[in-house]
Amino acid sequence: MDITIHATFLPHDDPDASLAFYRDALGFEVRDDVGYDGMRWITVGPAGQPGTSIVLEPPAVDPGITDDERRTVTEMMAKGSYASITLATADLDGTFTRVQAGGAEVVQEPTRQPYGVRDCAFRDPAGNLIRINEIS
Predict the structure, then answer these.
(1) Is-contact 30 18, C-beta < 8 A?
(2) 108 pairs with which residues across the strands?
(3) What local confidence, expressed as pLDDT, does residue 80 receive?
(4) Where are the beta strands (DSSP E) in 20-103?
(5) For residues 45 and 55, is the Cβ–Cβ distance under 8 A?
(6) What is the overall mean pLDDT for the chain?
(7) By percentage, how much of the chain surpasses pLDDT 90?
(8) At a CB cut-off of 8 Å and minimum separation 6, what does 54 contact?
(9) How far is it, in rounded angstroms, from Cα 95 to Cα 121?
(10) pTM higher than 0.85 for the full model?
(11) What pLDDT, on a 0 to 100 scale, did the predictor assign at position 62?
């Protein structure tokens, strides 16, 4: 079986701020930017990896979600406990410096974890946790 990760979805509550974070701070390329009924879905991804994307989407727009569930999602986003993604880089210190210089909220500076990985963490403008692992 040959299965790959094609796209993952993260919520955003400010498309322009999210676009600036993923494009300018992380250096991702913008692959699509679609508006519909006052909302935007923005697809970004790492240059040179056209098969892997992150779709930044309005939160809780599924018509099957109740108003109470929508409020819960909004509250969890505000606390930074709703969504996360782990990225990887060979240059953790350089990446950390670039993302921090872009004004991102630092959650954790580069650190060697007890379980072996060296990583850092940020929050994007919507509160999503962005953890970046160092790979060799």
Answers:
(1) no
(2) 121
(3) 87
(4) 29-36, 39-45, 53-57, 84-89
(5) no
(6) 94
(7) 85
(8) 7, 8, 9, 10, 22, 28, 43, 44, 45, 85
(9) 11
(10) yes
(11) 85
What angle (nearest 5°) sits at the alpha carbon of residue 49, between those of residues 44 and 53? 30
Owner of token pair 């692992």: 133
Q: Where are the beta strands (DSSP E) in the chain?
A: 7-11, 29-36, 39-45, 53-57, 84-89, 105-112, 118-123, 129-134
| Residues, the chain | 136
Band of residue 17 on the pLDDT scale cut at 50, 70, 90: very high
Q: Given its phi and psi angles, is residue 127 left (phi above 0), alpha (psi -120 to 50 degrees) or beta?
A: left
pLDDT in tens, 56-96: 999 988 888 999 999 999 999 988 899 999 999 999 999 99
Residues 6+ positions from 29 with CB-CB distance below 8 Å: 23, 44, 45, 46, 47
Tokens at 132, concatenated: 């970046």
